[in-house]
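Q: Got a minute? One more chain.
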Amino acid sequence: MALTREQKAEIFKTYGGSESNTGSPEAQVALLTARINHISEHLKDQRKDNHSRLSLIKMVGRRKKFLKYIANKDIEAYRALIKKLGIRK
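A: Always. Here it is, folded:
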């Protein structure tokens, strides 16, 4: 099941500053992370779902580009974001 409108609004409020700030890179990374986690759980059960696997790979690449932008702009914000989301170890 995809993210509901309320879940998206909560993500944007937490990471973007407000519900209407949907374009901030931090909010976009948080939204992509939620979707990636959801699809990863789906693929654990449905191993042959190659369509979802391709979508997952594309989302990971898009998130990587956003994270690179954030790291170049403000390294402290990048470190705080990945720690808060639990992306890297």
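A: The chain has a mean pLDDT of 93.
Q: Perfect, thanks.
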